[in-house]
Amino acid sequence: MAAEYICLAGGAAVTGVFSYLWKRKAKILSDVKDAPLLEINNDLKVIIDEAPSKSIPYAIVEGKVYADGPAIRSDYVLGAVGVIQSLVCREHKTEWSKATRLWHDTTRSIRDTVKTVPFFLSPFTNVSSPCVKVEDPLEAAHLTLETIYDKFHQTNASWGENLLNWATGEKTKGFQEIEKMLPEGRTVLGIGELSLANESVVLGPPSNGREYILTTSNMAGLLKDLQSSVKTWKVLSIIFGSVTIVIFLYWLRKRYQKYTEQRDYEDYLQRVREGRGIQGSTGSPSEDVDVCAVCLTNRRDCVLLNCGHVCVCSRCVKDLQPPQCPICRQRIARTVPLYHA
């Protein structure tokens, strides 16, 4: 019974989480479809200035990325510059598992840093044209950095070091260095709140709670990704919701079966008592050997299972708390009416 409750509660919780994610992704998709696509030109500042609160709550702009000042230079690739840089260094090791008695590979992160500089989105035609400054790019979703360097440096250990590693059950295979960047000149699609700050157009996280998006994909690719995400969470919600409903119906069926069995059994005992004429009577049986061991009045007329003792009447067996046999103290699983021939 406990397992059924756990499965039912777990299924309902998982279904609720998936349904929430499905609705959230559907809302994001709807917001992106409804957002206006604005060109980065001289009219953009006028449009924002004429808007209520001097801002557009949710809009789409697209342009090329350029640093607003010195750009970030790559640590590994000569001549590569960008506005966002991610440096990752991982240690790859082989360890001996006492549980499986096997060697298995593990990875440990030694360094994982992200660096960014102020940058803006510029029109495709002219860099010197009006631009849109981008705020808090690390808070944006769907921002994928380009991997410009990925190299594994293998560790060459001596014979003595290999022997020591074998004895300790731990061996370093090497180090992997990865550098990712958002290069200058890359086309970026930005979706967020457009506002004016110091006579400059600024793109930042929406104040109304909508999702802030920066992506190197185009509009068609972004919509395709969002639709795929909505479909995935919808299918998962339907699957887990159906499983939860099946578990709930199974639980209801078992409860109903148990209820009907108990009701039928109570009706059967009632018919037995009425047939014997003991309903409400307190008459004594003819022989002391058949007297109920509890009330010492009625006849012993039921068998206790699983022990098999015949020691109580059908009236007293319902009042035994805890339900244990008065003779051997075993737990009473069920009772069977006894007929005296």
Walk me through this protein's architecture:
- By secondary structure, the chain is an alpha+beta fold.
- Among the domains are: 54-217, no CATH class; 281-341, Herpes Virus-1.
- The protein has helices spanning 2-34, 42-50, 159-168, 219-276, and strands at residues 55-67, 72-73, 81-97, 102-116, 119-122, 132-134, 146-154, 170-183, 187-197, 200-204, 213-215, 302-305, 334-337.
- The strands form three sheets. A five-stranded mixed β-barrel has the order 1-5-6-10-9. Strands 2, 3, 4, 7 and 8 form a five-stranded antiparallel sheet that branches. A two-stranded antiparallel ribbon has the order 12-13.
- A hairpin with a 4-residue loop joins β3 (81-97) and β4 (102-116).
- α1 packs antiparallel against α4.
- The longest helix has 58 residues, at 219-276.
- It is elongated and about 110 Å long.
**Helix/strand/pairing category:** alpha+beta
Distance between the termini: 40 Å
Please compute the radius of gyration using only Cα atoms: 38 Å
Could you describe the largest sheet, including whether it forms a barrel?
Answer: 5 strands, mixed, barrel
**pLDDT average, as an integer?**
86
* Count of helical regions: 4
Low-pLDDT segments: 278-287
The helicity comes to 25-40%
What string gives the helices and strands in order? HHEEEEEEEHEEEEHEE
